[in-house]
Specification:
Oligomer: heterodimer
Number of strands of chain B: 10
Strand content of chain B: 25-35%
Largest interface: A-B, 18 and 25 residues
Function (chain B): Part of the ABC transporter FtsEX involved in cellular division. Important for assembly or stability of the septal ring.
InterPro entries (chain B): AAA+_ATPase, ABC_transporter-like_ATP-bd, ABC_transpr_LolD-like, Cell_div_FtsE, P-loop_NTPase
Structural class of chain A: alpha+beta
Protein name (chain B): Cell division ATP-binding protein FtsE
Shape of chain A: elongated
Organism (chain B): Nitrospira japonica
GO molecular function (chain B): ATP binding; ATP hydrolysis activity; transmembrane transporter activity
Distance between the termini of chain B: 20 Å
Number of helices of chain A: 10
Number of strands of chain A: 4
Strand order of the largest sheet of chain A: 2-3-1-4
Chain lengths: ~300, ~220
């Protein structure tokens, strides 16, 4: 217990020894991690948006114009029996025409000029939650496309593919920037720990001579790194939350994109805690780098 | 207890120790004499694994120090107390905390630490200074604290590198008496010094190093 108290106290003394450097390191780490956080927040929200779109996805199965009512009933039976299908709704040619006229009243004369209703009958299908991923929708559509009596299967493929590409791009950018800025955070913390190590090198030499193990010597510095990284991460989250709230307020007051205001979300609490743990891990990594270099220099 | 077999060490092609072979028995008090640069410190540092010989083997308390893994060296050092000319006390820690340090690194309980530190401070006569910082102590008292830290573990061997180098003749005699007391309790004591006055006060086995080589031993019975 006394040893634990000693190690914790030493870590605290280390933090106090270079107060200015410690503060600068925490703030620099906070700004660095906040930059990563911006991309992460964007990524999390776009992923959520993609999720809502996928939940809302409707697949339209257009039928052959010459399909008999018995064949249509058979097809409906088959589709209803499909384990991927959660709901199905038939839209007749007449209903389709009515909907077109409702949606585009100024263009309705174009269809009237054709003499007959060119719009096909269709089934509007909603897939079960387990089958709403882009790949699953694509596979299901391709399978149904081959069924007798089906003219075409349509869903907002282009739109969803474009969103998926944007998400993938942001994911890649977030990973790239995350790796680079995390390495920067590790370097910042490593340099701070190096200063502490230099300030206390005589003490470390004494500890070695009286039989302290490498682990015993390293623990206070690893704790110091963890505190620097953890605090930096916590402050970065605080800054992000502040920016996020300012952004939402701006959206509400300006009226621009006000509909999206309620759809935006900050990191959930478990993710916030995970990010603080990541910050602590980066801090420990920074300390470890400095300790290794310090040991190599002494060897 | 301590055995060196044909040990050699060079720094930048300059020999610090050349083909040194010696044996020190358990419970002996040995003076390691020699001028500055004779190789005394190198020899002591080898005994605690702080230096590795270029050739030869070093045994301490049955352990082949030359073959020890880096991770095992701290455990060797816990059996060997070390006293330095410059004391090497932590300026920001009290006398008590300085002496407690070798026990803390071993994870000894707080109760045992209090007992052992008090005993060690009493043995060297600075128990009343336990709450003071080293800087406010006299050089003699600082050396006593350094000795207390070296013996608080109950080491099997006590190594002292020029322990009287910063002390006046009166204090030197006091410190030598302290080493004799520690030796009388069964601890093997090796004192490295260049000071001939110490030799006259100790009157024990003297090993002399000159330019890294051993010269014929003197033996002055106690």
């Amino acid at each position: 217990m006394r040893t634990l108290y000693y190690l914790l106290r030493e870590a605290w003394v280390n933090l106090r020894t270079n107060r200015t450097t410690t503060m600068v390191a925490i703030l620099t780490t906070a700004f660095t991690l906040a930059c990563v956080g911006v991309f992460l927040l964007l990524y999390v929200n776009l992923r959520a948006a993609a999720g809502w779109l996928q939940d809302d996805i409707k697949i339209i199965v257009y039928l052959d114009d010459h399909l008999s009512s018995d064949a249509r009933a058979d097809l409906e039976q088959q589709l209803r029996g499909d384990h991927a299908v959660a709901a199905i709704h038939f839209v007749s040619k007449e209903q389709a025409l009515g909907e077109f006229k409702d949606q585009f009243p100024s263009e309705s004369h174009l269809l009237e000029g054709l003499g007959q209703n060119p719009l096909p009958a269709s089934f509007v299908v909603t897939l079960g939650p387990a089958f709403r991923s882009l790949d699953a929708v694509k596979r299901w559509s391709e399978r149904v496309q081959g069924m007798t009596g089906v003219a075409k299967v349509d869903y907002n493929q282009d739109w969803i593919d474009a969103l998926a590409m944007v998400i993938r791009s942001i994911e890649l950018v977030a990973i790239g920037i995350g790796v680079i800025l995390s390495a920067a955070a590790v370097t910042i913390i490593a340099n701070t720990i190096r200063l502490t190590l230099l300030a206390r090198r005589d003490e470390i030499a004494i500890l070695r001579l009286i039989g302290a193990t490498t682990g015993f010597i390293r623990i206070p510095y690893l704790l110091e790194g963890a505190v620097l990284g953890g605090l930096g991460s916590a402050i970065s989250l605080f800054m992000l939350k502040l920016l996020y709230e300012l952004f939402r307020r701006e959206m509400r007051t300006s009226g621009k994109l006000s509909g999206l205001d309620n759809l935006l979300a900050f990191f959930p609490m478990p993710l916030c805690l995970a990010l603080i743990v990541v910050g602590m891990a980066l801090g420990c990594a920074g300390s470890f780098v400095s300790l290794r270099r310090f040991d190599e220099a002494k060897a | 207890m301590i055995e060196l077999i044909r040990v050699s060490k060079q720094y930048d092609r300059r020999p610090a120790l050349s083909n040194v072979t010696l044996e020190i028995e358990k419970g002996e008090f040995v003076l390691l004499m020699g001028a500055s640069g004779a190789g005394k410190s190198t020899l002591l540092r080898m005994l605690i694994g702080a230096e590795r010989p270029d050739d030869g083997q070093v045994f301490v308390y049955g352990k082949n120090v030359t073959a020890l893994k880096q991770g095992d060296i701290p455990y060797l050092r816990r059996k060997v107390g070390t006293v330095f000319q410059d004391f090497r006390l932590l300026a920001k820690k009290t006398v008590f905390d300085n002496v407690a340090l070798p026990l803390l690194v071993q994870g000894i309980s707080a109760q045992d630490i209090r007992r052992k530190v008090t005993e060690a401070l009493r043995a060297v006569g600075v128990e009343h200074k336990r709450d003071q910082l080293p800087m406010v102590l006299s050089t003699g008292e600082q050396q006593r604290v350094c000795i207390a830290r070296a013996i608080v573990n109950g080491p099997v061997v006590l190594l002292a590198d020029e322990p009287t180098g910063n002390l006046d003749p009166g204090l030197t005699a006091e410190i030598i008496e302290l080493f004799k007391l520690i030796n009388a309790r069964g601890t093997t004591v090796v004192v490295a010094t260049h000071d001939p006055q110490v030799m006259t006060q100790v009157n024990r086995r003297v090993i002399t190093l000159s330019h890294g080589t051993l010269t014929p031993e003197k033996w002055v019975p106690a």
